Amino acid sequence: MIHTRISNFVDGAYLPGGARQIMDDVNPATGAVHALVEEATPADVDHAVAAARRALKGPWGKLSPAERAAALHRIADGIEARFADFLAAEIADTGKPVTMASHLDIPRGAANFRAFANVMQSHGTEFFTMKTPDGGDAINYTLREPKGVIAVVCPWNLPLLLMTWKVAPALACGNTVVVKPSEETPATAALLGEVMAKAGIPDGVYNVVHGRGPGSAGEALTRHPGVDAITFTGETRTGAAIMKAAADGVRPVSFELGGKNAGIVFADSNLDVAAEQTARAVFLNAGQICLQTERLYVERPVFERFVAALKAKAEALRPGDPNDKTTSFGPLISLEHRQKVAGYYEAARRAGAQVQTGGGVLEMPTAFSGGAWIEPTIWTGLPEDSSVVREEIFGPCVHIRPFDSEDEALAFANDTAYGLCAMVWTTNLARAHRVSRLLEAGTVWVNSWFLRDLRVAFGGSKQSGIGREGGLHSLEFYTELKNVCVRVD
Ligand code: NAD
Ligand code: 6OD
Predict the structure, then answer these.
(1) In angstroms, how far is the first alpha carbon of the chain from the final one?
(2) Which atom of ligand 2 is nearest to 165's Cα?
(3) Residue from 105, 114, 165 whose mutation best tests the ligand 2 pocket (most atoms within 8 A of CB)
């Protein structure tokens, strides 16, 4: 069962209803309210942070890494046991197609816990022997200790996946967390409270406070002096605001921010596969994935063919009931976000784009007519300095431009304030490696997209982020290293 009244989860229990503001939780496929959410008060945030701090010193803090790893596997088991509930909650919050949520979002929720249980157990720390100035012997070894109370501030596009991507390593390292899910998608974070309790995770280790950002739970949490570190996924502008909050108390941040990712398609690539996978990279989750390709550069001899192939893929997408297995295209997250994306569709038209397909809002049958639907859209013919080519839109749209040389493609791809990821399609091995090295991005996918090994460094360069998470890199953020130097002679 999923919750229709979504409460804050603090110190191992859902807080009883009180005089809190109520926020509507809207299903973006229909526009209907499917749950009511209790907005955390500043006192609730204090309560959550205090509970998290107490839990650091309780039984959680005394577990060995192996015992914590076992606890993480129990959480993963719990998500898998409640798979249908997590699926229903995620679909109700986001409107994403069941095929996507059941293959990506929910399995990754469980996989994140398993991956970091394993990472924690398979990484040791350093050990050095040394001579003392008077000829004696000493050893140095490093202890990896939890950082403390971690604030986890999450976006709405892949709610369970992105929240557990942070909570799992934080818990693996012995920290406690206070999660602030997006106000648009609070359901799976709330449901995870039940799983934590059933998995025997001590009270106060996992807490959830609901609300918006500024003037609400997001700001109260990130400004809270009891928070030791902040991990955030969301817009670059929000990251800047959180960084200012983190400056008080000089608290560390880990940021996964926006992108304006480029894809480069060389004429020697396997065009059928490139078009197939590029359609995923542009339209999956209605383009609401930070790794989405919004700029495509295609070598001139295959430009027309590639545009036609991608257009055919866009036009084959099936919008519809998210719970129908044949639906392959969902709505945007909200009518407000649709207005923003539609604004770019209008800007593209005004700037003289050739609209290859789409370009407007999607008219849907009555049951879905109140939803935030918009057409998959492909443009060509825009100058590189137009807002549509420079700014993150976060919708199902892409601009495609021809190029004549490798250097020109690289110059186009790198001409952005962002550096999250890039995608290259070629069968020329030397070129694949050369271009990957020269692309300014945290991840380069060659002949693939969004293929994830959770042990690798993940994050963005330039304005796409601060730091890397994944595998050992997550341990670097979620732990403090302490060197112990012992004279042994
Ligand atoms: P957002 O920045 O608007 O909100 C993210 C979270 O921050 C929400 O929980 C929100 O309530 C909270 N928040 C907003 N203002 C705040 C403030 N001043 N203080 C504290 N908390 C605040 O982002 P979004 O619209 O939810 O998500 C879409 C954005 O996220 C896109 O820009 C996308 O590129 C980015 N994103 C990046 C990655 C990545 O891995 N780099 C992953 C997913 C999404
Ligand atoms: O796969 C991941 O771990 C990850 N952080 C994906 C981010 C997707 C952005 O929307």
Answers:
(1) 63
(2) 3
(3) 165
Domain definitions of the chain by residue range: 4-257+464-487, 261-452
- Supply the residue whose CA is at minimum distance from atom 3 of ligand 2: 165
The H-or-E segment that residue 421 falls in is strand 421-425
Closest residue (by CA) to atom 17 of ligand 1? 213
Q: How many CA atoms lie within 13 A of 237 on its CB side?
A: 4
Tell me if 455 CB under 6 Å of ligand 2.
Answer: no
pTM of model > 0.85: yes
- 């859902």: which residue's tokens? 14
Residue 189 contacts residue 167 (beta carbons within 8 Å): no
Q: How far is the CA of 296 from the centre of ligand 1 (A)?
A: 25
Same fold: 4-257+464-487 with 261-452 = no
Q: Residue 390 in contact with residue 366, Cβ under 8 Å?
A: no
Statement: 4-257+464-487 belongs to CATH 3.40.605.10:
yes
**Closest ligand to 165 CA?**
2
Structure tokens at 474: 């997550």
| CATH code for residues 261-452 | 3.40.309.10
- Per-residue pLDDT 10s for the chain (489 aa) are 778 999 999 999 999 988 899 999 999 999 999 999 999 999 999 999 999 999 999 999 999 999 999 999 999 999 999 999 999 999 999 999 999 999 999 999 999 999 999 999 888 899 999 999 999 999 999 999 999 999 999 999 999 999 999 999 999 999 999 999 999 999 999 999 999 999 999 999 999 999 999 999 999 999 999 999 999 999 999 999 999 999 999 999 999 999 999 999 999 999 999 999 999 999 999 999 999 999 999 999 999 999 999 999 999 999 999 999 999 999 999 999 999 999 999 999 999 999 999 999 999 999 999 999 999 999 999 999 999 999 999 999 999 999 999 999 999 999 999 999 999 999 999 999 999 999 999 999 999 999 999 999 999 999 999 999 999 999 999 999 999 999 999
- Measured CA to CA, the distance from residue 397 to residue 279 in angstroms comes to 10
CB 459 within 8 A of CB 441: no
User: Which atom of ligand 2 approaches the CA of 452 most closely?
Assistant: 1
Q: Which two tokens stand for residue 230?
A: 């902040």
Residue among 232, 236, 238 whose CB has most ligand 1 atoms within 8 A, to mutate: 238
